[in-house]
Amino acid sequence: MRSEKKDKYPVSAYFIVPAPEGISPGQRFRFEHYLKYMPENNIRYKISAFYTLTGWKSLFVPGNYFKKTLIVIRGFLKRIIDLLRLVRYDYVFIYREAGPVGPPVIEWIVAKLFRKKIIYDFDDAIWIPASSQYNKVARFVKNFGKVKVICKWAHKVSVGNDYLMEYAAKYNKQVTVVPTVVDTEEVHNHLQNQQTYFPAIGWTGTFSTLKYLDIVLPALQRLQQKFDFTFIVIADRDPQLKLKNYRFIPWKKGSETADLLTMHIGLMPLYDDDLSKGKCGFKAIQYMALGIPAIASPVGVNSIIVKDGIHGYICKDEKEWEEKITVLLKDVGLRKQFGVAARKRIQDHYSVHATKNMFIQLFT
User: Fold this and answer.
1) β-sheet with 230-235: strand ranges across
2) What is the pTM of this model?
3) Under 8 Å between Cβ of 95 and 16
4) Over 90: is that where the pLDDT of 137 sits?
5) Could you tell me the maximum CA-CA distance found in the chain, to the nearest angstrom?
């Protein structure tokens, strides 16, 4: 974080976010990779996380609600300090929410009392009631209705896809779609070598999205009776899939790109529901950035990112999943062709380089 004087930078932004920098995938790929461009565009910034690193990690441990309650109280005390600090800033960038529970009191103070310009950003259908298996009680204390209220109070709203934009546009006229993207120059900067006799199929995600693997598991089980391939899961929890050749790789930020390059075909199955429509296609974007053909469900933004038969395939049922995976397992030339086209698409439309000006313009 930079602490430049205000007179050197005519525009300033205070970021109110859930997690410390470099920890949350959502924050990393929504806005953190743009921060390096802010000073050169005359924007001074400061980031304030609701949770400490220890507190953030505690969220993903089952139970211990008393400790989690204390963590949340500490976070709100920090938000009170934030209110004293952000008066010196022009914009207040809020990712998802200022606090994880209760009404949007902090947002109201920022917008109505301090008259600050809020840039409100979200990349999921966070207005739909849902909670993780580690914090099921959170569903009863979260205020899902505050999303539309914050949209109303915001100066601008930034969202990850058109479905989210349609929701936000009901409450705010200044809505911009800034896709969730990757850094194709410094991080996702390799092209997969598809020349192999034993291609691997893979999936990456978190514990909350493991349920989507149930969509493709039957097809994978049948295919492993015909073809010699490994199915790889990169996540924060091992789903222990019942497959003949299966490998689990614990997700680590430091080896993220190298781990993705262990696969030659990437899968993104989704259920056709409102929560899934809010997804920003990030799994497909990660695969494609590395020259890995993506096979995805025709839900939400997937069909926009993955052009069927050009960058991979769109599959609507179990039969199609099995058929299209078979095609790519057998045809190394087609995998290479799709992979090259896929990487170019991400570079042109879903990379930091291609979208950085869209993000910077939020502060003008």
Assistant:
1) 246-250, 230-235, 200-204, 265-268, 294-296, 312-314
2) 0.91
3) yes
4) no
5) 67
